[in-house]
Structure formats: structure tokens, C-alpha cells
Amino acid sequence: MSQDITIELQFFMISIIWGILILLAYDQIRVLRRILPHKISLITIQDLLFWLVVSVFVFAMIYVQNSGTIRGFSIMGIVIGMVIYHYILSDLLVKIESRLILLILRPFSLAISYICKGIGFLINKVKKTSLRIYGRLKNKLKSVKISLDRRREKKKAQKSTKMNERWHNEKEK
Question: Residue ranges per domain, the chain?
Fold first, then answer.
């Protein structure tokens, strides 16, 4: 085989490996989405950013390996690598990896759920206690207002009796 054909064959194999690596990286995003569910808008943004980064890396690979000349067989090699990886390993790897991570995180999620339940219990107790205290303070405030009103009435009554006494005294004189 000639030197040129060997170089082109190596470039084709590198393209296939790049296709495999691209989908392997994308599978890590899929695993993340299985562990932490995402909204469609966040998925769209993640996909857009991922493919922008991948396009930069693919261009850099083509630039380094083939002096920036985009060849059809290099794009075909990337697609072949993606298809091979997708049909042989992708789903199995995502399933195993996400289950393994969830299994590792299980004790932490249980601990967090118990902590959240405890905090919720404490918050309910504080709410009930504060409502009870609020009710008692409200009743005390009413009784204090009633007492103050009674005192005012007594003072008014005393003032009016004093005024009446003065008035009668002045009349008598």
C-alpha cells in the first residue's frame, strides 16, 4: 500500500473513533438527564451547546489531521463510528451507568429524605407552637384592652363625680 492510502486509512479510522467518542460524551449527558430530570428548554440548550462544542472539536481534528480539508469520507467515518457505537453500546452503557450512579447515590438520597422529613416535622411544630402563642397573646391583648377600658371608665367616672362635687360646692357658696 502506498503512503497516501495508509494516511487516508488512518484518518478514516480516527474519524470512526471520533464518532464513537462524540456519542460516548453525549451518553454522559443522557445519564445526567436520567439521574436529574430536565425540562425540555434545558435539554434544548444542553444539546445546542454540546453540538457547538463537538463541531469545534471535529473541525480541529480535521484541521490537524487533514490540513483543514473536509473530506466526505471523514464525515462518513464519524457517522459510521456514531452508528456502530449507538447500536452496540449506547443504550446498554447509559442504562448500566445511570443505575450504578443511582445505586451509589441511594444512601445519600435516603439520608436527605429523612433530613427533609425531620425539618418538615420541626417546621410544623414551630408553626403550631407559634400559632398557639399568637392565640394566647391575642387573648391577653383583648383582656388588657378590656382592663384599660375599665380603668378609663373608672377615671372618667371619678373625674365626673369630682366635677359634679366641685360644681355643687361652687353652687352652694
Answer: 3-172
